[in-house]
Amino acid sequence: MNDSANDSANGGTNEGERRTAEPAEKAAAAAAATDLARVLNDVGPRLRALRRERDVTLAALSEETGISVSTLSRLESGRRKPTLELLFPLARAYRVQLDELVGAPTTGDPRIHPRPFVRYGQTFIPLTRYLGGLHAYKQILPPGYGCDAEPRVHEGFEWCYVLSGQVRLRLGDRVLTLSAGEAAEFDTRVPHAFGNPGEQPAEYLSLFGAQGERMHVRARPRAGGTSGAGGEEGASGAGEAVPDEEGWAGA
C-alpha cells in the first residue's frame, strides 16, 4: 500500500475514533451537568431543613450572615441559584464545611479538623461534622461558670462524660457533681443546667441527637412573658451548651 493509501486509511481511522469519542464526551458532559443540577437543586431543601432543625429564624440568620431575608427565602425555595458568595457565610453561620452544606460526595478522608468557638463564655470543640444524626462536642467551662444557670428543657436524651475538673449538673431538684471519669445520661425533658463549681476549667464530652439540637425552652418563664419551643427566650443563658444564639442546644 502506498503512502497516500496509508494516509487515507489512517485518516479514516482517526476520523472514526473522533466520531466514537464525541458521543462519549457528550454523554460524560451531560452526566456532569445533570449531577451539578441535582446538587444545586438539593441545596435549597438542605438549607431549609438545616435551619428548621436548629430552630433558626430567617431574620436571625439574615442578621448573622448579612444576607437579606428575601434572598435566604429564595435560596431555600430554589428560586435563587446558590453561589459561593452566599454559601460561605451560611456555612460559617451553621459551622459546617461547605461540602456538607451542598451535599458533595465524601473525599474518603475520615479525619475531622475541629474549629473551636466560644458561646456564652464556654468553649465548644466540634467532634462531628455530619449535619444529621448524632453530634459530639468537647466543651470547656471556666471556673465558676454557670453555677446559677437557669435550668432548661427540650425533647430527647443527652449524655456527657467528664474529662477533667468538676461539672455540676442540676437535674430537676437534684444537684450532682461529676468528676473526671464519670458520665451521666438523662431525659432532657427534666429541667437541667451545667456549671463548673471548681477553681480549674472543666472539660467534658457532650453527645446529643436531632432532638437535642433544638433550642432549649426555659423551665420557668421570665416575669412578664412566657417562652415556647424554639422561641427567642430559649436562645440564651449560662450553663447550657448552646453553640449559637439562634442555633441548636446540646446540654
Low-confidence stretches: 212-251
The number of domains: 2
Just name the CATH architecture of the largest domain.
Answer: Sandwich
Q: Would you tell me which CATH topology of the largest domain applies?
A: Jelly Rolls
Biased composition (Basic and acidic residues): 15-25
Biased composition (Gly residues): 225-237
Protein name: Helix-turn-helix transcriptional regulator
Biased composition (Polar residues): 1-12
Summarize the structure.
Residues 47-101 form the HTH cro/C1-type domain. The protein is 35% helix and 22% strand.
Descriptive report:
With about 250 residues, this protein is an alpha+beta fold. The protein folds into two domains: about 5-100, 434 Repressor (Amino-terminal Domain); about 115-235, Jelly Rolls (Sandwich), CATH 2.60.120.10. The chain contains six helices and eleven strands. Strands 1-2-3-10-5-8 form a six-stranded antiparallel sheet. A three-stranded antiparallel sheet has the order 7-6-9, with no helix packed on it. A hairpin with an 8-residue loop joins strand 2 and strand 3 (about 135-140). The chain is elongated, with a radius of gyration of 26 Å. The relative contact order is 0.14. InterPro entries: Cro/C1-type_HTH, Cupin_2, Lambda_DNA-bd_dom_sf, RmlC-like_jellyroll, RmlC_Cupin_sf, TransReg_Diox_bact_type. GO terms for molecular function: DNA binding; DNA-binding transcription factor activity.
